[in-house]
Amino acid sequence: MTRTLLPVSWYIDPAAYQRDRQRIFARNWALFGPEAGLREPRSWRADTVNGWPLFVIRGDDGILRGFHNVCRHRAAKLLADGTGACARIVCPYHAWTYDLTGALRKAPNFGPEDALDLAAHGLFPVRVEIWNELVFVCLDDEAPGLAAWLGSLPALCDEFPKPADLALDGGFSAEGDCNWKAYCENTVEGYHLPTVHRRLNAAVDRANTQIEAYDEGRLVVFHVTYAGGDTTLRGNQGIWFYRFPGFQGVAGARSFKAERIEPISPTRMKLTNWSWFASLSPEEKADSIAWNRQITREDMGICETVQRNFEAGVYHEGVLSPLQEGHLARLQALVLDAIDGAGGHAS
Fold it and tell me: For residue 4, what pLDDT band results from cuts at 50, 70 and 90?
């Protein structure tokens, strides 16, 4: 029997939230979104990821670059959240103008020509890499490359259709009143399926479904065999995966799902979903998207009850099932190591 490893205060305190952002999320890759819509020169997308306003933009040279969405002058936001295209980036506050490589080109009416070193005031860069038509960003120059970070995941996904073989068709975002760690702990165990996810549990052949850890526990994969009528929608087999700290998805015979999990406050988290489909009728697609939303609501709903009881002050420590919750214990150990241990880069 293993006791829970993390103090309850780590799910509540503002200081713990900031530690998680700086020591965990800033040092790992994060899913930014689909490459679709970013293939043409001058196209851009802006979003807030793990509390940092960011944007990615395709240069005239064809390179996709990422930047903090903050002007070097007075910290104004440069691009509104969403998508667009531009030949240059002009700050809406004082018209400081940057080219698509992030270099500052003009600072109108700032002062004498030699008052400002333009070359020293380019945009703050963010690393950008692409896997499987998904754009990822990383704030840490010393973190491993995306391929190393993904580890075993690409090989595990190889037997299933890729987003390039499917059609991007839908997505959603949802916010929940729970700490991101509580939500991800729920993600890596199947103990709750029979009670929280009745339809999903009925669709899974549990006798032929295994949960495996890869890459020292940073990747947890459910190797799922489906049963019953839902094989029409999902195929006979698939994988559900979670890569610490905030990337999860589903790969199957007829669909692919990618999701970003992120903290937005000490006691709130956000999930953003993108889904790709093939050979599904409009009714089947609508049902699949609705089912994805339902699963998210069910997970958030139970995690919100956990969060409320954390905040109530009665619960201080729990116990973990050696049969059902080993991956949860490993996730907590990863958090503990990042915060109190070496705090090194996740490889």
Answer: confident
For residue 99, the tally of other CB atoms under 10 A from its CB is: 16
231 vs 329, more confident? 329
> If you write DSSP's letter for every residue of 66-81 in order, what string do you get?
EEES--TTT----S-S
Q: What's the residue count for the chain?
A: 347
What are the phi and psi torsion angles at 174 (to 5°)? -145, 140
Q: How far apart are CA 317 and CA 11, in angstroms?
A: 12
* Phi and psi torsions of 91, nearest 5°: -65, 130
Across the range 295-304, mean pLDDT stands at 97
pLDDT at 232 over 70: no
Angle between helices 14-23 and 326-340 in degrees, nearest 10:
90
What mean pLDDT do residues 218-232 have? 84
**Domain 30-138: homologous superfamily in CATH:** Rieske [2Fe-2S] iron-sulphur domain (2.102.10.10)
Each domain of the chain, given as residue ranges in start order, spans 30-138, 151-340
pLDDT of residue 346: 44
Q: What is the pLDDT of residues 60-98, one digit of tens each?
A: 999 999 999 999 999 999 999 999 999 999 999 999 999
* Superfamily, domain 151-340: Naphthalene 1,2-dioxygenase Alpha Subunit; Chain A, domain 1 (3.90.380.10)
Is the pLDDT at 342 greater than 60? The verdict is no
In the chain, what's the furthest Cα-to-Cα distance? 75
Burial code of 149-183, b = ≥16 C-beta within 10 A, e = fewer? Answer: bbbbbeebbeebbbbeebebbbbeebebbbbbbbb
Distance in angstroms (rounded) separating the CA atoms of residues 157 and 155? 5
